[in-house]
Write a sequence for this structure.
């Protein structure tokens, strides 16, 4: 037993010290997977147990103004990350067919690695989506699949950041940040209330766009299984499976939101603020012209 434990520890240190990207070893949260894992586990516990318990005997918070600011921040933040991904590879230097990781200290390669780190950081800021549901006592939106969606992402991105901060699989992050630009802009306008909601008539197509994103992701990843590409295939499979999982999550929401006769919001992935929430909040405290 002691030998087995010793071998496991040695194997762990070999992977962390000898098989990871040495450029990122000294970066924040990159030396060990355990801080990220702990945060993700606490997020799951808070989302399903602690948060609803703390809010059980409290009135829901009116967060309309907070949501406007939050979604504006996420829109700008996602736009910047998308721009950095374009400038560090996907704007012309990268191949959509097969793109190995550049592990050199080339300024462009380092810029890509830094962009990957900021994308990793953005996954933590998205935990606020769930927090706002809980503070508004919209616990029906915090489904198990919703928590899996948000809770798995930081750990998955950490693995990519630690071992392959660049290359083929960053196409996932590129598309994801582009969709988030549109998504959080929509949420921001929705949070402004009914007076502005006539400008987001295209909300039905947003979920369709998200599903197209996930189809593009798993096609882009799985196509490398049939060609010779110098990129870790286990990462390609892992990211491709993310595309399949998230396609299921968002197709579930689309089906429930647009096919359910009662129009009940029971899908796995829900918006930060829906139309009815906006209307009720505007009635209590109308926006000034």
């Amino acid at each position: 037993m002691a030998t087995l434990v010793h071998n496991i520890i040695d194997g762990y240190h070999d992977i962390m010290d000898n098989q990871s990207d040495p450029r990122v070893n000294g970066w924040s949260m990159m030396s060990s997977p355990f801080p990220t894992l702990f945060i993700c586990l606490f997020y799951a516990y808070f989302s399903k147990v602690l948060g609803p318990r703390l809010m059980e005997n409290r009135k829901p918070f009116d967060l309309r103004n907070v949501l406007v600011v939050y979604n504006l921040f996420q829109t700008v933040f996602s736009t910047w990350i998308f721009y950095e991904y374009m400038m560090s590879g996907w704007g012309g230097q990268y191949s959509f067919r097969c793109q190995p990781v550049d592990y050199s200290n080339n300024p462009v390669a380092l810029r890509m690695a830094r962009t990957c780190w900021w994308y990793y950081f953005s996954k933590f800021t998205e935990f606020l989506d769930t927090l706002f549901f809980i503070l508004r006592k919209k616990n029906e939106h915090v489904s198990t699949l919703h928590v899996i969606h948000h809770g798995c992402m930081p750990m998955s991105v950490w693995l990519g950041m630690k071992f392959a901060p660049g290359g083929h699989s960053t196409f996932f992050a590129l598309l994801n940040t582009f969709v988030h630009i549109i998504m959080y802009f929509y949420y921001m306008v929705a949070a402004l209330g009914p007076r502005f909601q006539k400008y987001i008539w295209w909300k039905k197509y947003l979920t369709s766009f998200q599903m197209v994103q996930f189809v593009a992701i798993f096609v882009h990843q799985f196509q490398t299984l049939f060609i010779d590409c110098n990129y870790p295939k286990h990462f390609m499979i892992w990211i491709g499976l993310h595309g399949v999982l998230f396609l299921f999550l968002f197709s579930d929401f689309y089906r429930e939101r647009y096919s359910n006769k009662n129009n009940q919001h029971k899908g796995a992935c829900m918006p930060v603020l829906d139309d009815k929430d906006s209307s009720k909040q505007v009635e209590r405290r109308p926006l000034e012209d």
Q: What stands out?
A: The two ends are 71 Å apart (CA to CA). Confidence is low (pLDDT under 50) at residues 264-275, 278-289. Residues 64-90 form the longest helix (27 residues). The chain has eleven helices and no strands.
